[in-house]
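Quarterly update, task 2.4: coenzyme A-bound model.
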Amino acid sequence: MEIRKAQRSDAQRAFELRTLAIRSECKDHYSDEALTLWTEGSATEKFMDTVEQNFHVVMFEGEVAGTGMINTKDGMIDAIFVDPRFMGMGVARKMMAHLEQLAREAGLAQMKLDSTLNAAPFYRRCGFSGDKVSTYHSPRGIQLDCIPMTKSLSE
Ligand SMILES: CC(C)(COP(=O)(O)OP(=O)(O)OC[C@H]1O[C@@H](n2cnc3c(N)ncnc32)[C@H](O)[C@@H]1OP(=O)(O)O)[C@@H](O)C(=O)NCCC(=O)NCCS
């Protein structure tokens, strides 16, 4: 398992993986309507730009198994998705450790994210805290329940 910066050519796979991960893991926590809105359509130019500029990918057995990104200006983590075929193997944990390293190198005091309702226990395993449900306004104009969480890097 290794991590590398994403390239523009990873965008289709990253979009497909995002769809698979959401449909597999979020279905017990969100309505069918929300899941459809969340995963419909295809990778836009804006999505491809974001992948090329900000995404990192976990490679496993020659495939992109997981994605993730961090804004090293404000510590915001996003796009943590794992292909269901590779879940439970430490892919997301490896990505989180990599993003934490980038945050530390950037001198950030904390990382933050808006967790899906299903993923909050995973983030707690990674040292994040937070349990209040809030509303996530997605870049595609969708509103979803989420749990804002933070992890201090100072200690
Ligand atoms: C949440 C997600 C990223 C976890 O990915 P993963 O690669 O399967 O997680 P890992 O194998 O690295 O798990 C690391 C630890 O978290 C635990 N964990 C992972 N997912 C969990 C879950 N849904 N509930 C409770 N614990 C979980 C694992 O058991 C493991 O614990 P351990 O350290 O005791 O062994 C993945 O299930 C996913 O893509 N979900 C759908 C998309 C999503 O909701 N993403 C979050 C967007 S904010």
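Highlight for this quarter: The mean pLDDT is 95.
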